[in-house]
Design brief:
The protein is α+β, with helices and mostly antiparallel strands. 33% of the residues lie in helices and 15% in strands. The protein folds into 2 domains: 10-85, Beta-grasp domain (Ubiquitin-like (UB roll)); 95-168, [2Fe-2S]-binding domain (DNA polymerase, domain 1), CATH 1.10.150. It is elongated, with a radius of gyration of 17 Å.
Length: 170
Amino acid sequence: MSSEPSAAARQVVLRVNGTDHRVDVEPRTLLVDAIRERVGLTGTHIGCDSTSCGACTVLLDDRPVKSCTLFAVQAEGAAIRTVESVAAPGGALHPLQQAFEDEFAFQCGYCTAGMLMSSLAIYERGGTPTRDQIRNGLVGNLCRCTGYESIVDAVQAATSRREGADDDGT
């Protein structure tokens, strides 16, 4: 994508991680490209450009979507959350990130951003999902390194810890 918008470019306001960004985009600009190139957040990966891998997963109004499947203009007015929003402002790890570390849920790291965002959607639904529910929630994300079990373990650990904290009042 060229850094200079053409005459067909249009200005849109993308609300990314709680901040409005006015960006000029071509009508055909994919959301993943707008996030990376116009907003400057590069944590969302481009893996396949064919909607197969899920490395580009973001939350759009709290639902996981593959940002390579949407045009940026389609996301105007929606709340977009990227992997950069997951950690606390001071850099403290989110419980889900900590669980990914504790359970060795990543190896090469390429799928991690997308896996975290899909996992975050599961985590934020509340409750303690079953392993099958977690697997179903991750169905759009591919990982060539881990075999998925450590990722499922991480989501299960994070949700179980959260529910345990809720149960005892802490």
